Amino acid sequence: MIHDTSTLPDSPQELKQIIVDLQRRYERENELLREQVRLLYARIFGKKSEKGQMDSTAIQLPLFDMPEPEVEPEKKEVEVPAHTREKAGRKKLPDNLPRVEVVHDISEEEKVCACGHTMSRIGEDVSEKLDIIPAVIQVIRHVRPKYSCKSCEGLEAEGSVVKIAPVPKQIIAKGIATAGLLAHILVAKFTDALPFYRQEKQFSRLGVEIPRATMSNWSMKVAEACSPLLTLLHEQVRSGPLINIDETTIQVLNEPGRAPTSKSYMWIFRGGPPDKPALIYQYHTGRSGNIAALFLKGYAGVVQTDGYAGYDFIDMQQDIDHAGCWAHARRKFIEAQKGSGKGSQAGSVDVALSFIRQIYAVEKEGRQKEYSPEQMYSLRQEKTRPVVAAFRQWLEKKLLQVVPKSLLGTAVHYTFNQWSRLTTYLDHGEVTPDNNAAENAIRPFVIGRKNWLFAGTQAGAEASACLYSLIETAKANNLEPYKYLRYLFEKLPFASSEDDYRALLPYNLGQTDLAMGHIVSGV
Known about the structure:
By secondary structure, the protein is α/β, with parallel strands linked by helices. It has helices at 12-45, 50-55, 179-190, 196-205, 212-225, 227-238, 289-296, 326-339, 345-368, 373-399, 407-417, 419-422, 436-452, 458-476, 481-491, 498-502, 511-521; strands at residues 146-147, 163-164, 242-254, 263-271, 278-284, 301-304, 320-323, 455-457. The strands form 2 sheets. Strands 3, 4, 5, 6, 7 and 8 form a 6-stranded mixed β-sheet that branches. It has a two-stranded antiparallel ribbon with strand order 1-2. Strand 4 and strand 5 form a beta hairpin. Helix 15 (481-491) crosses helix 17 (511-521). The radius of gyration is 32 Å and the shape is extended. The model is unreliable at 52-69 and 519-523 (pLDDT under 50).
């Protein structure tokens, strides 16, 4: 901006050049602002699915890109194996659901034919309807008969005592909550994102008053009782060849020395053997890389993260291979696609997304054929390496052409700067191209946060971390959360050794264990 005309040159030619330079600068900045507006408009009113954006054919490829024409990578033919198509219609209801038969029969008179003979039953027509019984609250009365000796009554002998069975062990002693009630409340909040105040209203409609403060107190007591399991989960996460890490924000209202509006973080660490995954949630007041460094101390293997600078220290660890996230790189190009309009950048974005589609097509092929890690490694060397090499050459060329602050420039620079991390997965068959395992694990917490908004205290946030760890580990091991928590809360009071606690972890249980546990407990 020119504020003093005395500094302007007297030459008309130089003045014209200044005007041209200002015009170019204005147009460049104006285009960057238009990109941001288009991106914001797409975020508010457009489709949220990245897949929809990637597969969209609505955006027409330009004929030329600057400074020279660009061609999409050669498309390879994909063979689709023969398959049988299922008959369209309503899906069959699960066989494990209980059935109640209601027979609709004709009258005895109608069973007599016009010829006078009784008609014979030759079959039946069956149709199934789905019914539901709303939650039923019941009271479990624990009756402990008392016994005394009639012969000793009135005597002062040592044997004149009253005998009674010991109080049944409960996860919360001297309370009204059973394992089933606790499991129901905690699954409703931490799986179905139903805050305690809404559950309070539901219980009230059922005729029972359970204040939200009571439910909050129960959850913290349960988390305290389950704390020995967290140490074992921590070991399990670190025992596998891969650890996925992610973090998201959480607000805690009453925290010593911090304002209620302060931003805290919930961290997620996912790892363990592929067939026995474990998840650990941890509450921390900050997002420093020291948190991840402390968790990874002494670990050897692969660590997969997004591009957050707090994870840069991992690149310096000798025993750790740092893998990046192709989903984040793809997201940058999709944002550029949303903000590019119909300019020449649209073609460049489509070329980049075409490369990434080919990368994921190889992964899909391996999943469909159920390849082992060794087979995935070989497949990637054969099919993914050439695609990645071509993409790298394209990025190097684009770095010299794009405006760094534009959406496309941001995507190109991000992908190029993350390149060593993005290609790490090629050398490890058990690693996926993206960090979706951690993002999918953190998503239930994010959905819950949209409903309950904040945690009241630090203790409440730490209790939530414990319960999320157990529930999400159960889900990762294909256990139904309610059944697992109920089983856990019934058995946990009797655990006294490390082996006892280890036997209660989700990856050491199966559906049969949970079913048998309920039969034994009389549920």
